[in-house]
Design brief:
By secondary structure, the protein is mostly helical. About 80% of the residues lie in helices and about 0% in strands. It is globular.
């Protein structure tokens, strides 16, 4: 029981570490903060769970499909949030990335 909980904690910590490294990489490369990165990770994780449970796809196929889906979603977020936003307004890209993240929520 203890080893299972220890493994779960390490796995959850590694997931948080990967998302934090993604934030760090985006801020270092673009000098802009992307708040839609969490939504990208969450949508990719939900896509992986749906593909593995409902469609019973093997893990390597699910991994590749989710990797490509997350990459497409990240590029779409880049074009919607950062590419066509004026650089004179530094907070505009932050607000537009928040808008991309909030636009996926339904009331």
């Amino acid at each position: 029981m203890f080893t299972q909980q220890l493994f779960n904690g390490v796995l959850l910590g590694a997931t948080y570490c990967l998302i934090a490294l993604g934030f760090n990489l985006v801020v270092g490369a673009l000098d802009k903060l992307n708040f839609a990165l969490g939504e990208t990770a969450m949508v990719t994780a939900i896509m992986a769970s749906l593909l593995m449970v409902n469609d019973s796809l093997p893990f390597p196929v699910t991994f590749v499909v989710c990797l490509l889906g997350g990459a497409v979603l990240a590029v779409l977020t880049y074009f919607l949030s950062f590419r066509f936003v004026r650089p004179e307004y530094p907070t505009a890209s932050i607000l537009s990335s928040l808008g991309v993240g909030w636009s996926s929520r339904r009331p």
